[in-house]
Task: structure prediction
Amino acid sequence: MEVEKVGIVITTFNRPEELRICLEAVMPQAKALVPEALVVVVDDGSKVDNIQVADTVDYYYWQEDNNYRLATARNIGARVAVSDGATILIFFKTQTGVRI
Result:
């Protein structure tokens, strides 16, 4: 049986500490369950430096803050994940409480 490719889309805006906590919770669990899982972070134009996460995820996308907000950020993440073969999408915001 072929395992579906999972795309995990995490949106963020000016929350570097919450993003770090979210990634520390999500990444090990996702990769343990589905090693081929893609992790996509979409930054909705943060004025703070979130780029340190770029090396820890499969895709990091920063969009200019043009008041597009959450829906557009999620759509960008979905397009990126699907274009890399994801057939199942899971969405998180950095404020999402994820238990380790």
Observations:
- The mean pLDDT is 84.
